[in-house]
Design goal:
Elements: H1 2-17, H2 22-31, H3 36-53, H4 93-101, H5 105-109, H6 118-121, H7 125-133, E1 138-139, E2 155-156, E3 160-165, H8 171-186, E4 190-194, H9 199-210, H10 214-219, E5 223-227, H11 230-244, E6 269-273, H12 275-282, H13 286-303, E7 306-312, H14 325-329, E8 332-341, E9 344-354, E10 364-369, E11 372-375
Parallel strand pairs: 3-7, 3-8, 4-5, 4-6, 6-7
Antiparallel strand pairs: 1-2, 8-9, 9-10, 10-11
Helix pairs in contact: 1-3, 2-3, 11-12
The structure holds adenosine-5'-diphosphate and magnesium ion.
């Protein structure tokens, strides 16, 4: 219990350190179902520790290369925490009511649902069953040596990982390589949901840059690239919210939502490129965006695939998601940096958190080459300071 609360505190600390206002952090938490008094409490505790831990990688006093090869225990690494796994918990009105009356809410959410609590059993039956019967399979990411950075050598099916990075840092390359390698090496099925570039453009770029024949994979039924118009989604969500407003509680899953993707097959791997395009389409309607995001993460979770969701940030981001709620919802956060080293710029990635596995905690250099995204796990980034 304590541990799950710590997770929220940790994410909140990162948000505050990166300039998110207390109000926004609180709102993000309440929108994923944390009651206001708990959110207040979490912000208070995050503030206490943020003064010490609030330094960014731009700060020269921070050694950015961890020379040890050891995989450190991850703050988020416990498999016991069910808070995020049970995001859907809040779907049921009566439960929301119940938890509101319960003083220790976070504690109450977690054990996801004790067996001897019949009233919580109904709404969480799916997760419950899943928890008891399924040990989630790990599948390797297969992008260069990335898997060597993760103790379990891959990501767990059902995980949704947020990957944040600036324009040109290789997000699209990483995402497509993840699908391409999965299809080629393991015959796993991949879906690429593009909210930015057209299908044709992506195929053309991947062929020209890396020689990947995506048409051939599509013909084999191992890949589907689906173009989604973010404006259409934003308008539809807005219309639905306007219609529903006035009710005390927005029961989102009752809506006839767009973005219930009609996939041609059950995927093993899914990429969403990118949330930023979606966020921009929602413009000032951040409530609509956040609610939709929650719905999107829940939809992705149901596929039981490994999902990579991209977000575009600054080149050396201190803020990993525009609304913070992405970070609360994701099972992991990876950042792609573009760092100035002497007179040039170099790329490095960092696994900030990964719920499902222990992982390396250091900046790892990478490059885009003719072979695609290449990770150099034994090399270090040297900085001018
Ligand atoms: N074969 C290649 N060799 C070296 N660099 C490449 C090659 N192909 C593409 N690039 C570069 O890799 C970068 C990554 O692009 P991309 O994956 O589209 O990034 P993002 O999606 O983050 O904007 C681009 O700046 C592009 O110019
Ligand atoms: Mg891109």
């Amino acid at each position: 219990m304590v541990e799950n609360k710590e997770r929220l505190i940790d994410a909140t600390k990162r948000l505050l350190d990166s300039g998110t206002s207390e109000e926004d952090a609180k709102q993000s938490m309440t929108e994923i179902g944390v009651p206001e008094h708990e959110a207040d409490n979490i912000v208070k505790q995050a503030k206490k520790i943020s003064a010490i831990a609030g330094k960014s990688i731009e700060d020269p006093s921070i050694a950015i290369v961890d020379k040890s090869d050891s995989m450190e225990g991850d703050f988020w690494g416990s498999n016991e925490g069910n808070f995020f796994k049970n995001r859907n918990f809040f779907k049921n009105k009566s439960q929301v009511k119940k938890t509101k009356e319960t003083p220790n809410l976070l504690g109450n959410l977690m054990p996801s649902i004790k067996e001897d609590e019949p009233e919580t059993k109904h709404a969480t039956l799916k997760q419950y069953k899943y928890k008891k019967t399924n040990i989630r399979e790990t599948i390797p990411v297969l992008v260069s040596d990335f898997d060597k950075l993760v103790d379990r050598r891959g990501l767990k099916k059902g995980d949704t990982i947020l990957i944040s990075g600036g324009a040109g840092t290789g997000k699209t390359t990483f995402g497509m390589q993840f699908l391409y390698a999965g299809a080629k090496q393991r015959r796993e099925k991949g879906v690429y949901l593009t909210l930015e570039e057209t299908t044709e453009k992506i195929k053309e770029n991947m062929m020209e840059n890396f020689g990947w024949d995506l048409d051939a994979l599509e013909k084999e039924g191992l890949l589907a690239i689906i173009k989604i118009d973010p404006l259409t989604i934003a308008r539809a969500v807005e219309a639905t919210l306007t219609k529903e407003r006035g009710g005390l509680y927005i029961e989102f899953e009752q809506f006839d939502l767009p973005f219930q993707f009609d996939l041609p097959f059950k995927p093993d791997r899914v990429v969403v490129d990118s949330l930023s395009a979606l966020s921009i389409a929602f413009m000032e309607n951040s409530q609509g965006y956040r609610q939709y995001l929650r719905h999107l993460f829940e939809t992705l979770e149901k596929y039981r695939s490994v999902n990579l969701v991209f977000g575009e940030t600054e080149q050396s981001p201190k803020i990993y998601s525009r609304h913070g709620v992405e970070e609360f919802l994701a099972d992991g956060v990876i950042v792609f940096y573009n760092i100035k080293v002497h007179n040039s710029r170099e790329n490095a990635l960092e696994i900030l958190k990964l719920r499902s596995s222990r992982h390396a905690k250091k900046l790892v250099p990478y490059k885009i080459t003719d072979n695609g995204f290449e990770v150099y796990i034994d090399e270090e980034i040297f900085r001018e300071d």
